[in-house]
TrEMBL record:
Gene3D superfamilies: Kinesin motor domain (3.40.850.10)
Residue ranges of the region described as Disordered: 504-561
Organism lineage string: Eukaryota, Viridiplantae, Streptophyta, Embryophyta, Bryophyta
Source organism per UniProt: Physcomitrium patens (Spreading-leaved earth moss)
UniProt keyword annotations, A-Z: ATP-binding, Coiled coil, Microtubule, Motor protein, Nucleotide-binding
Binding, ATP: G100, Q101, T102, G103, S104, G105, K106, T107
Protein name in UniProt: Kinesin-like protein
Record's compositionally biased regions (Low complexity): 514-531
Residues in Kinesin motor domain copies: 21-351
Domain of life: Eukaryota
Any GO molecular function: microtubule motor activity
Amino acid sequence: MTVPLSPSQHDSLAVDDGCSSVRVAVRARPLVEKELVENCSECVSYSECGKQVIIGAERRFTFDHVFGAATSQEDVYTNCVKPLVESCCAGYNATVLAYGQTGSGKTFTMGCGNNVSLLKEDLGILPRAIRQLYECVEERSNQAEFLIKCAYVEIYNEEIKDLLHPDTPSKSISIREDAKGDIVLAGVKEEVVTNFENMIRLLEHGSMFRTTGSTLMNQHSSRSHAIFTIIVEQRSILDSASNEVITAKFHLVDLAGSERVKRTGAVGMRFKESVTINCGLLALGNVISALGDERKRCQHVPYRESKLTRMLQDSLGGNSRTCMIACISTADTNFEETLNTLKYANRARNIRNKPVINRDPQSILLNHLRQEIRALQLELLNSRIRNAGLDLASGPQDLFLTRADTSMEVTAELNTLRLKSRESEHECLKLKDDIQGLQSLVNNLQEEMLILRTERNHYQLKLDEVNSELAALMQEMPRWEGVMDISPMVKDHLLIRMKRAMGETDNEGPGFESSGSSLSSLDRPASSDAATRSERNPSFPTVRETARECSNSWPSSQPKEDHSVALMPEMVYTPFTADAKGANCNSPDRTSGSNRNINQNLRTIRDLEERLALKESDVKFKEETLKEATEDLARDERIFAEKMKEIKTLKKLARDLTNERETLMQKAEKNSAMISQMSVEALAKEDELARLRMSIEILQSGRPDAFNINSACVPGVPVEVAKPKGENCDVHVDRIESPDEVKCNAMDNTSDAVDTAAEAPVEDLSEKLKVKEEEERLLSPRKAFEEQQHFEEDVCTQSRELRRSKQKGNFLTKCLMGL
Ligand SMILES: Nc1ncnc2c1ncn2[C@@H]1O[C@H](COP(=O)(O)OP(=O)(O)OP(=O)(O)O)[C@@H](O)[C@H]1O
């Protein structure tokens, strides 16, 4: 049945209060061939609204999406994953998680490539997501530059394997938390991929290395949890000044299926895999419970319980938009597993994530600093212009700008360093918190270990008591020999126990191999404890001593009736035969009482052994966790120390830069004053040059009326000029070579003289000019010509320089305005 899709299902990424719930979809697979052959019937139905699944008589579960057995891959993808790919392109982390019992269709749903054997409509989530991602990149290529990377790992038997680089040893891969608190896989190489085809090739290549195996439930059963991660980095190109980088991670997870060993028929290696798979899923369940249960929400979330949960830390309760697809089988033979999956998935619906756009803090900082620098540069320029009263378009500004820029750079650098230092301080605080958390974890673990050790000692004591009781009973054994019939099996067993208690190896007893493992745990603590006890009280016989005595006093070999003794732990004493009863009628009650005692004691021993083994494995696990936590703590402390060192260096650098900045600011102040002075001088020189050029033009024109305007420039004619400020100014003109070619040799106060020369009496000047002309006629016209040329060249050079500096000034002004 295909469940109709409602439009509301498309809003699968609804976010409120910055939080977004984990979306959960259920997908039922159709009955497979094996189930059809077995005549299985369907035990699952769906409600009309398309959001409820009903299992059995009336157990209803509500989910965000419910996909019936006939739902196409396309529908599952469109509803569950498409929005996640879109949000990943927008900078949000995303996760798709396929969960379910073995053979329920997780790998089918996720897909692991684009095989030619696959029909297009059967393509799973992975190839579809990769295609959509590249389409999205293509669409946005005019807005941003994209860099896409991928990594593919599997968690097999609690070890992480890099499927894209299978040669990487698992030991070199570890799960770490980076400075931002994101989970990263150190040691896993990410591949940069530029197109759909290449990424599919990598996916298929990695999938080839994934561990699969055949079980009774699924011929191609995945024996590991596989995580394909796509990393999307984008840099906006719309705003060239903004170099903001956004990075999003997309995890596509195909979990291994939960399974019952009885049904999968897993033995040996498969059995071990099965145990680790179930442990990982149990840890995931614990995390889901801790996050989903409102009462537990503030408590510790056991992410560190398994590698799977640690890797999915961001996806469950963290910075990610997550969708879980719970795959179920509708066959009634899988009723219990399906019910469990639905319960598991239902809990996941309560998890609240906090997705945010992953902006690179460095680029944010850089942008912020750039804006600040621009603002400061403008402000500084404005204030300088105001102070110097300069027109930006005139005058050489390069020196001024260089200094100002240097000062700006230093300020910017200083700000960057300050921010970095602040950031490192935050990081240090965070690390401190982490260290405290770890410290309390270690303390808790130590406490737990202490309790466990006490418990172990307690059991050990009990075991010793039982052992000594047993030893006492064994001492009595020879006495019963004559009076009752004890099964040779029992004797054999007791002999083996005694020998083992004495630390001897005895493989003769047919029950040795089966009971060996359980007995060995008894052997070790008994002997060590016996040693300590004999130290305490040498008169008290140890189990070993008593046992040795017994074994010596016993007949060495008893006829062995059969080899059923292999079931030693379950063995009981054989009942008395009628004859034996007759023969031993002197104390039948006492004998049966002792038998009962021995049986009871054996049971107690077995019980204690099991409990002890359990406790020991518990202690071992705790010790490992403690070791890991201690290592983490040491690492964090190392990082913390490094950070502190870095902060110190940064602070010192910041201090140095502040000093340098101060010095530069002072220098810049001085230079700006100098520049202002120079600018004023340059303006005066320009004026002077303009006037000189005008004078030359007038003199070159040789028009007598020109002297009315500027006769003060007549060469060699000392002029008494009018005094604008009540002062006399003399202009000395050397000589006139010809009426048209003159050399002007203006002395001090030239500009004033030129300004006031217009007011000199024209008659006087004409007369003087005539005299001069007479004199000049006598001089060589050639020389005058040469001098004139010389002078013109000088003027041209000066005006060229002036033009160049003007251009420079204009250029710099434009640059400044541009900035
Ligand atoms: N929706 C479906 N439509 C048709 N066939 C399906 C569907 N889902 C699963 N199957 C078939 O069911 C079988 C088991 O599926 P699959 O291998 O994906 O299960 P699994 O959950 O990944 O198992 P495991 O956990 O053991 O790896 C496969 O033969 C697959 O083709």
